[in-house]
Amino acid sequence: MMTDIEIAQSVEMRQITEIAANAGIPADDLELYGKYKAKLPFSLLHSGENTGKKPGKLVLVTAITPTPAGEGKTTTTIGLADGLRQIGKKTVVALREPSLGPVFGVKGGAAGGGWAQVVPMEDINLHFTGDFHAIGAANNLLAAMLDNHIQQGNALGIDPRKITWRRCVDMNDRQLRNIVDGLGGKVNGTPREDGYDITVASEIMAVFCLATSIADLKERLSRMVVAYTYDDKPVTAGDIKAVGAMAALLKDALHPNLVQTLEGTPAIVHGGPFANIAHGCNSVIATKMAMALGDYAITEAGFGADLGAEKFLDIKCRMAGLIPSAVVVVATVRALKMHGGLDKKSLGTEDLDALKKGLPNLLRHVSNMKNVYGLPCVVALNRFPTDTDAEITCVMEECRTLGVNTVLSTVWAEGGKGGVALAEEVVRLCEAENHFAYSYDTACTIPEKIETVVKRIYGGDGISILPAAQKQIDTLTKLGYGGLPICMAKTQYSFSDDPTKLGAPEHFTVTIKNVRVSAGAGFIVVLTGDIMTMPGLPRVPAAESIDVTDDGKIVGLF
């Protein structure tokens, strides 16, 4: 059996100018990055206005709570887009860019798998067009200018103990989570506690993905709170006078990237915040551009629907004025059996008891999409050779009780052909009744919004706010940030804040440890449980298996 990278390298890619032409993009509009990648101009956001074309239907692909068994959300997203093209629908897929942290760590990349991939997968999973490097450079420029302001006299009266801005690097490096810097005497800065976040958790990544133009980007950058003064007044990036320089680093990166699927479907890959510690969606510009170019725009949100989909709907759609036409919830029999307590080594054997114990996880996610958000929904069941007819029937019958159909997907093995049935159901759902609503009202207090998400989306009993977090909530409310939406930072492995509670746990409370404002992004970040903004590498990192042959061919990359 070929690996993902071997499959990707076996397919002859089309020139990116051909992909662009098929999407109605003139060659002169492309900023080429070699033969197979290009940056797209903002003018394409309005490409349908002259022809009277309405924005395409927006379809969100999400998933059950992730397990080591795998779900295949990105693979399904790509296979669905290819399937829609196979039935004659003009489709564009809009994805996030992968972070180097998971690529070299344990999760893997974000270019799909099998015969449902975006290519060139090696480039996309590594440096791509340099967007993440630009975001990291802008983040660290701001950090340098902040510390330099203190060094050069501290005219703003910044309290070094109240600096909230951290440096970043796009790598899993636990050693940098908490550091002390500025050592070595007066000329080397002010000694203080500091730390690093992974680039995808930087507020600049969130700002980058929510900005709608260069002007909006600069406004958002200027609002970012980086520190507090000795009398507890917020200090912003605008106060540090770093906005223009940061925008200069980001201006090229803000243009979305055009690539292709293995079957030649146009793919816009842009931005990449993590969904467990950020809002987990690709850029608003990329999504709207996909809608402007296609009759169907297929996008995804990170991790399970309690994280990525909740933030896509409550944050991104709210800010960008988007209304999805349908939602696809991805699941596998194998993963559901793990949620039912079955060991990973035993997943290849039929076990209806374990499956039934794990099914509530899927049903809660589906119910949230259908009953909380009011969206038409379908379950995409990624079929594995070991899945039995009895197990598949069991899943279908349980989903039917919620009025939701289940469609088998074989896109990993068959590409777009294996996604035709799913595509047909999605087309049907896009014409169905849509009663989209957010899960909470931003006019509620910060604790009320947090508790609403915990109760309505997670299925918990409530929240426990630690004293330090309550003090932060009181301060942010007093400063006027209480009306912002919330971005929950929570383990991706459970509805609760305890990663060991699989399935659909009940009667739990979520502990709120830290609350901070991302004023530029426009939301309140709520850290729960033991969530960290800088991951670490596993015992055996994926990096150990990656290599380059003497002729320059990358091997071992999935």
Low-confidence stretches: none
Radius of gyration (Å): 23 Å
Query: How much helicity do the residues have?
Result: 25-40%
Q: Kindly state the mean pLDDT as a whole number?
A: 95
Calculate the terminal CA-CA distance, rounded to whole Å.
Answer: 13 Å
Structural class: alpha/beta
Outline the biggest β-sheet.
Answer: 12 strands, mixed
The shape, in one word, is globular
Beta strands, count: 25
Q: Which strand-content bin applies to the residues?
A: 15-25%
**Number of DSSP helices?**
19
List the helices and strands and how they pair.
Blueprint lengths: L3 H7 L5 H7 L8 E2 L5 E2 L17 E7 L9 H14 L4 E5 L4 H5 L7 E2 L2 E4 L1 H5 L5 H21 L6 E6 L3 E3 L9 E3 L10 E3 L1 E3 L4 H8 L3 H10 L1 E5 L4 E3 H4 L2 H8 L6 E5 L4 E4 L14 H10 L2 E5 L4 H16 L5 E7 H7 L12 H21 L4 E6 L6 H12 L4 E5 L1 H4 L5 H11 L15 H13 L3 E4 L1 H12 L7 E4 L19 E10 L4 E6 L18 E2 L5 E2 L3
Parallel strand pairs: 3-16, 3-17, 4-15, 4-16, 8-11, 17-18, 18-19, 20-22, 21-23
Antiparallel strand pairs: 1-2, 2-14, 5-6, 6-14, 7-12, 9-10, 12-13, 14-15, 22-23, 24-25
Helix pairs in contact: 3-17, 6-7, 6-10, 8-10, 13-14, 14-15
Give your account of this protein's structure.
It is a single chain. The chain is α/β, with parallel strands linked by helices and 558 residues long. The chain is 35% helix and 19% strand. It contains 19 helices and 25 strands. Strands 1, 2, 3, 4, 5, 6, 14, 15, 16, 17, 18 and 19 form a twelve-stranded mixed β-sheet that branches. Strand 1 and strand 2 form a beta hairpin. Helix 13 packs across helix 14. The longest helix is centred in the N-terminal third of the chain and has 21 residues. The radius of gyration is 23 Å and the shape is globular. It starts with a helix and ends with a strand. The mean pLDDT is 95.
